[in-house]
Specification:
2 domains; DNA-binding (chains A, B, C, D); 0% strand; TetR_C (chains A, B, C, D); mainly alpha; Arc Repressor Mutant, subunit A; homotetramer; Tetracycline Repressor, domain 2; DNA-binding; elongated; transcription (chains A, B, C, D); DNA-binding transcription factor activity (chains A, B, C, D); HTH_TetR (chains A, B, C, D)
Chain lengths: 199, 199, 199, 199
DNA sequence: AGGTAATCGAGACGGTACGTCCGGTCTTAGA
DNA sequence: TCTAAGACCGGACGTACCGTCTCGATTACCT
């Protein structure tokens, strides 16, 4: 039985793969999403266009892979100091800081655009990029729930979205500054919703 | 001071303007954002491309105008039954419903993409489309604050983003269903954050 | 019986007419045929486009009028010194000189292009610009025929074309220099054909 | 020395090249020069516009190539029966016939227009299309000169233009019919100029 | 002298083609 | 077989002009 068989991954050039992902991220930072084209990526990476199309479905998939690689590099786990507020500060602050930086958030912006255009990609983004972080926060909140720091009737899926949603909203629609104070305020507000009075 | 001049708005064809905005919205609903091209809009509207470029900077601006027109048509004010929870349900439920409908949310999707690609447009979207609604909700919350239904120390800008943020996050990243129950839960969670116990 | 009546020529602005013809000739000299557009003529002349279309059928007609004006200014008659060779030199030399000058011949070039594209215009060009000169030369040749300086069996229509044809051919196809010597040689060759031995 | 490079001719699609040249000639015959557009050629040939622009500078260059191809196919040589008049009849008659046919002369008309608009193209037309024929006639005249059928002092470059010039003049300016009699008369007149009495 | 009809400058309009850019596929040569 | 390179077909881009049309504002005639 001959397999339907796309390209053979064992023969894939790791060198090209890295060059493509690097080129994509660089171009995003340097010139922005509208100038990010497959041709530009291929040229910058010193790679044929076909090599991109052979392994990715489009530029959204390339960016997703680039960020997946980066995400794997950092620790996806949550700290647990015992104090849920402290731990949430620790996770939200750097996220806000990244979104506040136009250069660093260029990839997020690009991926959001692709996500809004492509349903299949959206699911990949959710499962491969967002889920790990959301689950880590959820786990931490569950622990807090067991420690009676979070009301028992709080739906934890909604809880994590209550933390990340306002932040992304403000980022997307530029309704206000993405400062550290803002990050802390969001955490405080969310914790109030979870039944924790401010310290 | 030499005026920048540009085309003379008094000679603008209202007929063409309406045809273009209508065509843009129709096409978005029928074929989606990636297939929405200036050429298609012009063809559908029975208009020369130049007539679009003369008055708008690109398709983002066209969509923005189309939605601004539509937004002006509907009442941007909030209900005020005296009960803040009831009133928030009334505003959040239809918003969630609209986002849940692929056809109705096509324009939101398109505008979000443009917003993420174009800083100048983002500000227009914020000021002309979002602000009126956000301000209306904010006003309603301020009244609730005066009626001691919302804690006095709650920052109202953050408050409205706490309501809308999670909803848009779930819409963009498809992290869960956009049901009426969800809409109500978001309101309940936010009200808890604002210091209102569940009924 | 109401006349079909186009525009009323008595109300025509002579000022605009001259400005248009002048602008057309200037533009031809400065930028060449490909840049000669109705819009450019109108802008240069400080005239509305409609004023051009009201009085001319297109740019070919404008150029034709411009040259007709110029042609009327110069004397269309032939000299008659009694010596046909001398007289032909006198008529051919300046014609060659004009064709040799890129600036002066820009209008001829433009008109030739229009002539090749538009049959109706071609007839106008022939009758209003060429015919007078051709007829003048023909008349002079007829006189020479009577004076036995030209063979009686020479068809005079062919004779004049034998004089002008080679010149225009060389001008169009750049097969050789358009010098005064060349002009004289053409005359000599033609006269040989007409039965006149070189002096 | 950095090579100017441009596209690699070894990878050029012969299929597309032929389709483009064929389409151009067909369209010229069917619709005329003003309706001959790059877009129409591309559409008819089933080719992307870029494929035309990659290899040609514009429609003039395409037509030139199309005719060069056709010219190579026919024999560019002159007959030599020993009698120069007979041989010139043989070459001039079909040329006049072609110019007299609106369909067949469409390409000549188009090329003449381009020649008048574009100096660089004019030289190509002269060297690649006209020269071979002019040279062939010139060679034949030279042989006639050696055989004392043409006066020794006749400049052969001028001689060939004396043959072709009047014909093109009459074609361009429509000063008379392009019949076979006319063709013969031109030859007879030219031969008289060359010192050959009519038979 | 005032009314009125046509021309005028200006430029927006519906269109068509331009020449460029890029998407995604296919072909070639080399490793 | 995969790769770099890049030609290919297709199609949208944003621009330039086309020829028509709609505006006041002159302008010249005609009561």
């Amino acid at each position: 039985m001959p397999s339907p068989s796309g390209p053979d991954p064992t023969r894939r050039s790791e060198r090209s793969r890295r060059a493509i992902l690097t080129a994509a991220v660089e171009l995003l930072g340097e010139t922005g999403y509208n100038e990010l084209t497959i041709e530009a990526i291929a040229a910058r990476a010193g790679v044929g266009k076909q090599t991109i199309y052979r392994w990715w479905s489009g530029k959204g998939a390339v960016i997703l892979d680039a960020l997946s690689d980066a995400a794997l590099a950092v620790d996806a786990s949550m700290p647990d100091t015992g104090d849920i507020r402290t731990d949430l500060y620790a996770i939200i602050r750097p996220t806000v800081a990244e979104l506040a930086d136009p250069r660093l958030s260029a990839t997020s912006r690009a991926l959001s655009i692709e996500t809004l255009s492509d349903e299949a990609l959206a699911e990949q983004v959710r499962d491969r990029l967002l889920r790990p972080q959301l689950d880590a926060v959820k786990d931490r909140l569950r622990a807090a729930q067991l420690a009676d720091q979070v009301r028992a009737d709080v739906d934890l899926d909604q809880a994590v979205e209550l933390l990340f949603g306002p932040m992304y909203y403000r980022w997307m629609f530029r309704t206000g500054p993405l400062s550290q104070e803002y990050a802390d305020d969001v955490v405080d507000l969310a914790l109030a919703a979870f039944g924790i009075a401010r310290a």
